[in-house]
Amino acid sequence: MEIAILFLIIAVVFVVQSVKVVPQQSAWVLERLGKYHGTLTAGLNVVLPFIDRVAYKHSLKEVPLDVPSQVCITKDNTQLQVDGILYFQVTDAMRASYGSSNYIVAITQLAQTTLRSVVGKMELDKTFEERDMINAAVVNALDEAALNWGVKVLRYEIKDLTPPAEILRAMQAQITAEREKRALIAASEGRRQEQINIATGEREAYIARSEGE
Prior knowledge:
By secondary structure, the protein is an alpha+beta fold.
């Protein structure tokens, strides 16, 4: 009786170890005797117990990655605090497991390096106008390198561009001066138009009086 129970327990353990259920939008990397053997996809999978083991588990969903804020130097030697977010997706579970010891750290570091390089080629004013170009340049540089890590970089978005306080004050003063200039021009145009209207009215009145006489 005890032997039968022992065999039953062994059989249950054997079945449990043999069956792997992978969730949807997931990929598990299988190793056989320490060597890569295959990738388990979503659903029911049968493996060899005690010989095969699941070494890595990856989610295939889109992942948002916050890229830490950093200081970049623009072409006109102005410091600029840049903060962004990166969206990526694992496309090759095998490469994501063995291509890099930590692909998230690798992507983050490369994103920061690329961003500093792109911003360094632009003047301060252009960085505010060319956000889309900066985002595209970062994605292109990352996507090429990330192929070796089994990762697809989908997009990069700059969350914030913050120049030093003195630059902000200078920019605000410039904006205020431009507004005042436009206001003065508008006022002078208004006075000019008013004088033209008065002169036109007087001329038409004089003509009307002359015709009446």
